[in-house]
Amino acid sequence: MYINVPNFLSILRIMSIPLLIILLSYGEQVAALTVFVCAAVSDALDGFIARRFKQKTAMGAYLDPIADKLLLTSSFVAFALLGLIPKWLSILVVSRDIIIAMGIVILQLVAVRVEIRPSAVSKCTTVLQLTTIGGRLLFDILHRNQDALTYLYWVTGFLTIVSGLQYVVRGLRIVNETKIEG
């Protein structure tokens, strides 16, 4: 099987997750931020390369969002467990991703073809979630007042909910438009 550059970047993003969590666990925030920023940049870069150089693949359509979800879910869980972000925000992010994943699995199980295309709201949500994690690390490194991040947490939480609801509505619409013979 041929692995192109965008898919390779997604695989590297997945492989960076244990390193990120280890660095966070040992309080190596500068190194953790470096790994996290590289992972976040690889997310933007793989999409750009896939579109610009016509390297979109079916595998990439699944691999890229999986890599994103694993990176963000791992980060939010680790940050919540380490007391770096509010637990409620981590719960929202993880719950949204579980609901989306379950919806895709259910649609696949009932033989409904699902094309994975993130909405504009979903892309903004991902950017905000990445900014929340990166911003929290950066504020720690620079010894800045964490209170300023409270607004970012609330906006990220709100957009996470909106995006999750949008996916639920989209999934229900697909189910209602599809005749499932049983």
Measured by DSSP, the beta-strand proportion falls in under 5%
**What is the overall silhouette?**
globular
Instruction: Indicate the CATH architecture.
Output: Up-down Bundle
Helical amount? over 70%
Mean pLDDT: 92
CATH topology: Four Helix Bundle (Hemerythrin (Met), subunit A)
- Main beta sheet strand tally, sense and closure: none
**CATH homologous superfamily grouping:** CDP-alcohol phosphotransferase transmembrane (TM) domain
Radius of gyration: 17 Å
The helix-strand sequence is HHHHHH
* Overall number of domains: 1
**Strands, total number:** 0
CATH class: Mainly Alpha
Q: State the low-pLDDT regions, or none.
A: none
Class per helix and strand makeup = mainly alpha
Distance between the termini: 36 Å
- The number of distinct helices, counting runs of at least 4 residues, comes to 6
Describe this structure in words.
There is one protein chain. The protein has 182 residues and is mostly helical. The chain has one domain (5-177): Four Helix Bundle (Hemerythrin (Met), subunit A). It is 79% helix and 0% strand. It contains six helices and no strands. The chain has helices at 5-25, 29-52, 58-81, 87-109, 120-141, 149-177. The chain is globular and about 55 Å long. The mean pLDDT is 92.
